[in-house]
Amino acid sequence: MKQFSVLIVDDEPLAREGLRMLLTNDPQVAAITEAKNGREAVIAIRDSRPDLLFLDVQMPEMDGFEVVRQLGPERMPAVVFVTAHDQYAIRAFEINALDYLLKPVTAERFRQSLERAKARLSGGEEVGRRMVSLLEAMSNPSSYVKRLAVRSGTRTLFVPVDDIEWIQAAENYAELHVGAAAYLLQATMNTLEASLDPTTFLRIHRSLIVNVGRVKELQPAGHGEYVVVLRSGVRLQSGRSYHEKLKALASNPF
Prior knowledge:
By secondary structure, this protein is an alpha/beta fold. The chain folds into two domains: 4-139, 3-Layer(aba) Sandwich (Rossmann fold), CATH 3.40.50.2300; 147-251, CATH 2.40.50.1020. The protein is 33% helix and 32% strand. The chain is built from eight helices and 15 strands. The strands form four sheets. It has a five-stranded parallel β-sheet, with helices on both faces. The protein has a five-stranded antiparallel β-sheet with strand order 10-9-8-12-11. The model has no long low-confidence stretch (mean pLDDT 87).
């Protein structure tokens, strides 16, 4: 059984203690160290090179993102970000396929994050490029995403959003349809709708988003609904509450 070391970074002593208690239940955790601020974290990562980092986002003087900037994405260990309320940060984590914990941390959510982190460690997944994408997203909060990071086994693929034809909700995931391929992204439809350029992507149902450039025709289906026919031949049924959006698209599709 592979053993690994963990560094907890949080300016709140009770938060560090809570994460430590949860980590001590895992037999693969060989060592747990702590840092109470960003500066201590940078020194600890450089000196001890932990395998896994639980990194608080909101800390005084040097926050979690500045820790990444100071070290450089290529020198970061596997990271689970911890955040209390920054909704934009949560969106950035999701679209770049980086894990996060929302405070207050529950035991079940922590267990899920730890298992994902251990899988990444076992597979030797490289996180540097996703860190770069995260920092780019955080430095341009008003911009829309140009690509989405999706996991494929132990690899991370970057899908240009312009290549996506349509997106469908799939339980706790979103399924991105790109030609004959489909990729699962762990993000909500609300997160994706807010992240994608509304002049290019239109939500037509609570579980469907389409690339308007891939729409071939709209067929009225009664009761304020439409059948949206894509150039690929895919037919998607709109929801009644999205009638006005599709009506506007029909009157001025470009």
